Amino acid sequence: LQHLLGGVRANVGLKSGRYMIEVKIVEAHGQKEANNHDARGPQPRNLVRVGLSLAGSSLFLGDGSSCSLAFDSEGFFVSGKSRKKVGAKFARDA
Known about the structure:
With 94 residues, the protein is mainly β.
């Protein structure tokens, strides 16, 4: 299994007020550098996206639709087809 994507959605909606979402990376697999003899090609990177989307939209945040917005673990804000660097990269706690 070289590439794995997953998406989840809460079963309640946000109407007003302030909400906090917390994510903890509990395991991150190291990436091996591909050498010239490796026929598998480039290895996938570890990436976490946390955000909001409309009901009925794709579970994959940042898929290019205007129905979602997200922040990812590389420090980017993703909305629609735009991706803007807004913070530092984050990873598993040491």
